[in-house]
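Consider the following input, taken from an annotated entry for Transcriptional antiterminator (uncultured Desulfobacteraceae bacterium).
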Amino acid sequence: MGKTGLSRSWHVIYTRSRFENVVLEGLRGKSMEAFLPRITVSRRRRDRRVALQVPMFPGYLFVKTDMAPSEHLEIKKTVGVVTLVGNAGGPIPVPDHAVESLQIMARADSGVATGRAVRAGSRVMVVGGPFAGVEGALVRRKGKGRVIVNIDPLDRFAGVEIDMDDIEVLPDMGR
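Applying the prediction step yields:
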């Protein structure tokens, strides 16, 4: 595909939930250049931690195309594709250097953190470990994957060091 002479550029595809790999393989099966940035994360299982490869941006992947009508249609017909990210004028291209940077980050896969920014003072719930179920306030990050959280039972503060994976940020209720 892509033999129309048009300039090829990267575009973002929004996928059905957890269909990133299905879309990636579908596009590759149609001989399209596609990229799904992945990172390794540590997840807690019942009695141990496991390292998993997960999408850096869940629900999104990249495809390099000239956006000829036939290619656009083939992309949209791929199982799991919801839409190409864009506006009323159509899909918006992503600069090559931005995708190249993501490719470098995905290859390095060391210390890449994604998700919502957690700031000092954020209200958190401890969801794993010996303090599971306790609310507190994030004091600061400490090292790779560790945070200091003030837990506040009985209106007293006690700072504890916890794995980042063991906390969830609580919604801000206008506090």
